[in-house]
Automatic annotation (TrEMBL):
Amino acid composition bias (Low complexity), ranges on this chain: 640-655
Gene coding for it: Arhgap10
Region (Disordered), start-end ranges: 585-606, 622-658
Name under which the protein is recorded: Rho GTPase-activating protein 10
Domain annotation PH: ranges: 265-372
PROSITE patterns cross-referenced by the UniProt entry: PH_DOMAIN, RHOGAP
Source species: Sitta europaea
GO cellular component terms given for this protein: cytosol; perinuclear region of cytoplasm; plasma membrane
Length: 754
């Protein structure tokens, strides 16, 4: 039961029960006063906490805005650029949110704190003042009454009458004050219901407005969030592919560091300990230097560097080398030493110490030391699975059979092209397909022996086994450039232009494949293979750099973008001719500050490096004897040797140019072609030549001759094959690089050895 009402008539009775009801009303108002006081305290704390939260959120937003991701390489993908910009977007989102929060804090002060303070001060405070007056008058009234009743009856009548009048007036005043107090008590009891709740309602209205503004911001942010999630997923997918490639390269370098040195303009570079002589009592000290030598200019530079002191770099020293001499242990109490003498300081030798004997040999050779050890270049020609993947009739048949089977049986399979088949089954299927005798017998569309994942893996393996990627080494860099910058329209135009620069067979094969991938992407809702996912799978398959480096692997994501462009615009790219006025892409080379510039194997060395010319007088199978390389392949086509017979006498073509019956080949390409091959895929010279040994004299007529034009003398130097597994030098050859071979006239090469 609630409070009992205070009757005005009870003010005149002033009964104990009336007083009890008044005290109950007073206690309720006191409780209300304490509640409002506590609520005001909590409200102010809430405002302070809101301001602190807003300050923290703003600081967090500033941190997001001020940070920027650095990237590896010379450009970012669109996805990476959007991810970088996302931090700024997050910052703006928080900033807008905090602006609404500040409005909320102000509204709490105006709509909750001030009204409640005003009610407590003006209404509850007024009741307290009325209570004080009521209590004072009660005390006065009953004190006067007791005094009046104690008057003696013997007093004069006039005095008694005056006393009665005074008591009566005081009683009337008390009753009036009591009536007003009772009225005020009941009024405030009713007023508090809306005076207290209305500010709280306003507070919640402001709170809901804040949350609604947050909802609107989130709603506006939703589209950006969805796009960003796609960017993040694409970047993650590219990262997974890049990571596996980086780990593979790391393992290759770990197994053989010397074969994977980064190409630059220094003939030799690395750490050496340099002897620094001191005054007699102190002897000498050995200081580690990073040394670099250029053979063309004979300039030797060295920089002191100590890893243990936090990477402190000293002053560089440069001199022109006069000569280099090996130091034996009988002349110095240290191993792996050699002396250098500068041309401007004759008679003053600088003693260097290498890390090992092998390291010293490499330095001695590079520096033309007196006891330099020649490095013999071993040239191996290889065979892949008995047959080489080529862009020939069988190659097109393989791709068409696989595509037909995939589109018939597995176009809706989840993870199509991402789920790999069993390696042994893939190799077996590929062997059957690449054999002209069994290729037509393999039924991929109706046979249950071959799973879809085995077919897709075999197709990818075939494309990766081509001597040169489908989009060629020559155009690799040009394809990458537009993927790194420019508008989407300019990228499409650039890729369109470059596709039509591909050799005809490459372009034809690419068109067949990309049309199929576009069809696969149309079923992405079921097979989950979006254009981006297909780009991740086929980027490294259709494109790869000629030189394996971490920087090249960092460009994998741009290879994926090129493939995405091909898939999304395949109709325009392959069915229409490019704009004749479109400028050819300009090669872009970006090197880090203070780092030696990179040199491309395909560019910059064609004029300076010697050429290797291979005679192509090879015995072809009967099935191919009617066609000649000159007729089937245009001069300069990079697929010239990969477009011949289905079962060629040799396993693969080096990346060179066909000139008549000779293959002209850059020696850098030759080294890359031979050293980048798996060791198990390099059989002897004889298997490549496919030369019968029954009649050596007749065989010699078909033996290949290796020509190395000498840039110094202008004469050709060559090696002429003289036996089934031998070759004889008919011209002398002087090596111009550590990876090349020096030999004299008549030198015999047997089984790849000199």
């Amino acid at each position: 039961m609630g409070l009992q009402p205070l009757e005005f008539s009870d003010c005149y009775l002033d009964s104990p029960w009336f007083r009890e009801r008044v005290r109950a009303h007073e206690a309720e108002l006191e409780k209300t006063n304490k509640f409002i006081k506590e609520l005001l305290k909590d409200g102010k704390n809430l405002i302070a906490a809101t301001k602190n939260l807003s300050a923290a959120q703003r600081k967090f937003a500033h941190s997001l805005r001020d940070f920027k991701f650095e990237f590896i390489g010379d450009a970012e993908t669109d996805d990476e650029r959007y991810i970088d910009a996302s931090l700024h977007e997050f910052s703006n989102f928080l900033k807008n949110l905090e602006e609404q929060r500040e409005i909320l804090a102000l509204s709490v002060t105006e709509t909750l704190i001030k009204p409640l303070e005003r009610f407590r001060k003006e209404q509850l405070g007024a009741v307290k003042e009325e209570k004080k007056k009521f209590d004072k008058e009660t005390e006065k009234n009953y004190s006067l009454l007791e005094k009046h009743l104690n008057l003696s009856a013997k007093k004069k009548e006039l005095q008694l009458q005056e006393a009665d009048n005074q008591v009566e007036q005081n009683r009337k005043h008390f009753y009036e004050l009591s009536l007003e107090y009772v009225c005020k008590l009941q009024e405030i009891q009713e007023r508090k219901k809306f005076e207290c709740v209305e500010p709280v309602l306003s507070f919640f209205q402001g709170l809901f407005t804040f949350y609604h503004q947050g909802y609107e911001l989130a709603k506006d942010f939703n589209h950006y969030k969805t796009a960003l999630q796609i960017n993040i997923q694409n970047t993650r997918n590219r990262f997974e592919g890049t990571r596996s490639e980086v780990e593979e390269l790391m393992n290759k370098i770990r197994r053989n560091p010397q074969e994977h040195k980064r190409a630059n303009h220094f003939t030799m570079e690395g750490y050496l300990y340099v002897q620094e002589k001191r005054p007699a009592p102190f002897g000498s000290s050995w200081v580690k230097h990073y040394c670099m030598y250029r053979k063309e200019t004979k300039k030797f530079s060295m920089i002191p560097f100590e890893h243990r002191s936090g990477g402190k770099v000293g002053d560089a020293e440069l001199f022109v080398l006069a000569y280099c001499t090996k130091r034996n242990t009988d002349t110095i109490d240290r191993r792996f030493c050699f002396d250098l003498e500068a041309s401007d300081r004759p008679g003053v030798a600088v003693t260097m110490q290498a890390f090992s004997e092998e390291d010293r040999k490499l330095w001695m050779e590079a520096l033309d030391g007196k006891e330099a050890v020649s490095v013999i270049l071993k040239i191996f020609f290889y065979s892949v699975m008995g047959n080489c993947a080529q862009l020939d009739k069988i190659g097109f048949t393989i791709i068409k059979k696989c595509i037909s089977a995939v589109e018939t049986r597995g176009i809706n399979d989840q993870g199509l092209y991402r789920v790999v088949g069993v390696s042994s089954k893939v190799q077996r299927l590929l062997s059957l397909l690449m054999d002209s005798k069994t290729c037509n017998e393999v039924d991929l569309e109706n046979s249950v022996d071959w799973e879809v994942k085995t077919i897709t893996s075999a197709m990818k393996q075939y494309l990766r086994s081509l001597p040169e990627p489908l989009m060629t080494y020559e155009l690799h860099g040009e394809f990458i450039i537009p993927a790194k910058s420019g508008s989407p329209e300019s990228r499409v135009s650039a890729v369109h232009f470059l596709v039509h620069k591909l050799p005809e067979k490459n372009k034809e094969m690419l068109e067949i494949l990309v049309k199929h991938l576009a069809n696969v992407s149309k079923h992405a809702k079921r097979n989950l293979m979006t254009v981006a996912n297909l780009g991740v799978v086929f980027g490294p398959t259709l494109m790869r750099p000629q030189e394996e480096t971490v920087a090249a692997i960092m460009d994998l994501k741009f290879q994926n973008i090129v493939v995405e462009i091909l898939i999304e615009n395949h109709e325009k790219i392959f069915k229409t001719l490019p704009d004749a006025t479109f400028p050819e892409p300009i090669s872009m080379s970006v090197s880090p500050p203070n780092a030696p510039p990179r040199q491309s194997r395909r560019q910059g060395q064609r004029i300076k490096r010697p050429l290797a010319v291979y005679n192509l007088c090879l015995e072809l199978d009967d099935a191919d004897s009617h066609s000649s390389p000159r007729e089937d392949t245009p001069t300069g086509s990079m697929d010239s040797l990969s477009s011949q017979s289905p079962t060629p006498a040799f396993s693969s073509s080096p990346p060179g140019l066909l000139d008549g019956d000779h293959l002209i080949m850059d020696s850098g390409d030759l080294a890359g072609w031979t050293t980048n091959l798996p060791a198990q895929s390099r059989p002897s010279m004889v298997s490549w030549m496919n030369i019968p040994s029954a009649n050596p004299a007749a065989s010699n007529a078909a033996l290949p001759t290796f020509f190395f034009p000498n840039p110094a003398t202008g004469t050709d130097r060559a090696v002429e094959s003289v036996a089934h597994r031998k070759a004889r030098a008919v011209y002398p050859c002087e090596a111009e690089h550590s990876s090349e071979l020096s030999f004299q006239i008549g030198a015999i090469f047997e089984d790849g050895k000199y």
